[in-house]
């Protein structure tokens, strides 16, 4: 297929945590609100002159300093973030807002704060830690709303004079929804028998919307959508199987590329930093304040294993089944970052359910935060693709 016009621009935005669009926005007087978890409602971080940037640690190498503070048994994402912070890689942020999504992230951000790794020469810099619900019910919603008021809206207003009114929140939601609609429309091109966008390209484009000011990305997304409408696909579908990737945080585009290089087309993404459900538009009505509606929708659609009530746990597997059917998947790759406790339990139970209850071939793997050119992972994915092909030859029998 012909190269997408803006793909290299999106790829370049992912090469460094402090990308060109962040630098440009801050030079114009805008406030960079850093965050680390999907449980932080994005629209609330993009009010007025504030814009959100999800922290990443591209091209992570040694994590010796972070391991000293956090031990080698904590997840590599949190250690990679602390390592990069210790190196001074997040000085572009004007604040950091983190929810207690897991104890590992709590320790990561706590060390960032105690070691004064961020906010150099910025007297207004602040850290905020939110408590978020573990059940999707009315009590959980009340907690969520209160935490967002106290740890997002209040400090942004007091420290940087950000307008946090209901009207301002609704404007931010409108921009957020426009991005979501563009990403979802682009994602529709993955559904056909011979898609006009690869899983790698789609992941790069989606991930870019988490790490740079959205207003700057909208024109690029609009052009890409129009380009895909006339892009000619390969003469023959170049992949041997279609898979959904499910699981924990994936901001390493090399992981998706590795899967596709092995011959499996990544047709859908159910992971943190992905589009499902991360790029669901937020529906607002006029009969309730915007903040409560945002929190309710984030809580109810959330697929994070932090939610432990039975309906949410069962709903996570049902959701993956729904996505796999909608996108015509032949199998599911269930992944977790090494030493991620919440997703380790979810992966074990979820993989068994999807295999035994819903009948999908499932590959369950733990992976390093930065995959590189892992020969072991490549071998496992190749073997999984072969097993899917064998099942198809045998008439789809599931073992």
Structural commentary:
This protein is α/β, with parallel strands linked by helices and 399 residues long. It has 14 helices and 8 strands. The strands form 2 sheets. Strands 2-1-3-4 form a 4-stranded parallel beta sheet, sandwiched between helices. Strands 6-5-7-8 form a 4-stranded parallel beta sheet, sandwiched between helices. The longest helix has 23 residues. It is globular, with a radius of gyration of 20 Å. It starts with 6 loop residues before the first helix and ends in a 6-residue tail after the last helix. The mean pLDDT is 95.
Biggest β-sheet strands, sense, barrel: 4 strands, parallel
Strand content: 5-15%
Widest sheet: strand ordering: 2-1-3-4
Question: Average pLDDT, to the nearest integer?
Answer: 95
N-C termini distance? 36 Å
Secondary-structure-based class equals alpha/beta
List SSEs in N-to-C order.
HHEEHHEHEHHHHEHEHHEHEH
Amount of helix: 40-55%
Whole-angstrom Rg: 20 Å
Low confidence ranges:
none
Indicate the overall shape: globular
> How many DSSP helices?
14
- The beta-strand count equals 8
């Amino acid at each position: 297929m012909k190269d997408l016009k803006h793909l290299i621009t999106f790829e370049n935005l992912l090469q460094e945590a402090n990308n060109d669009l962040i630098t440009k926005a801050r030079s114009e007087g805008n406030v960079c609100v850093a965050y680390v978890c999907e449980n932080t409602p994005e629209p609330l971080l993009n009010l007025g002159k504030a814009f959100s940037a999800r922290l990443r640690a591209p091209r992570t190498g040694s994590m010796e300093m972070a391991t000293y503070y956090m031990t080698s048994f904590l997840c590599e994402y949190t250690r990679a973030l602390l390592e990069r912070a210790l190196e001074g890689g997040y000085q572009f942020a004007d604040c950091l807002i983190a929810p207690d999504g897991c104890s590992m992230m709590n320790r990561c951000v706590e060390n960032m704060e105690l070691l004064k790794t961020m906010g150099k020469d910025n007297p207004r810099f602040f850290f905020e830690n939110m408590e978020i619900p573990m059940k999707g019910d009315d009590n959980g919603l009340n907690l969520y709303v209160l935490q967002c008021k106290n740890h997002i809206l209040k400090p942004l207003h007091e420290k940087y004079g950000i307008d946090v009114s209901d009207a301002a929140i609704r404007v931010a939601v409108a921009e957020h929804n426009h991005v979501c609609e563009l990403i979802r429309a682009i994602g529709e091109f993955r559904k056909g028998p011979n898609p006009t966008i690869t899983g790698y390209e789609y992941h790069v484009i989606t991930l870019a919307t988490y790490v740079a000011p959205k207003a700057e990305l909208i024109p690029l997304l609009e052009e890409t959508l129009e380009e895909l409408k006339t892009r000619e696909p390969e003469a023959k579908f170049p992949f041997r199987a279609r898979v959904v990737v499910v699981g924990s945080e994936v901001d390493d585009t090399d992981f998706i590329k590795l899967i596709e290089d092995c011959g499996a087309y990544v047709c859908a993404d159910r992971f943190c930093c992905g589009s499902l459900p991360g790029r669901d538009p937020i529906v607002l009505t006029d009969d309730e304040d915007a903040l409560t509606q945002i929190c309710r929708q984030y809580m109810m659609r959330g697929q994070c294993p932090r939610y432990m009530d039975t309906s949410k746990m069962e709903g996570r597997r049902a959701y993956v089944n729904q996505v796999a059917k909608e996108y015509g998947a032949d199998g599911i790759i269930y992944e977790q970052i090494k030493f991620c406790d919440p997703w380790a339990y979810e992966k074990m139970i979820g993989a068994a359910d999807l295999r035994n209850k819903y009948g999908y071939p499932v590959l369950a793997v733990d992976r390093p935060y930065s995959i590189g050119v892992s020969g072991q992972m490549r071998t496992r994915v190749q073997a999984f693709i072969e097993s899917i092909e064998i099942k198809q030859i045998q008439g789809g029998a599931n073992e």
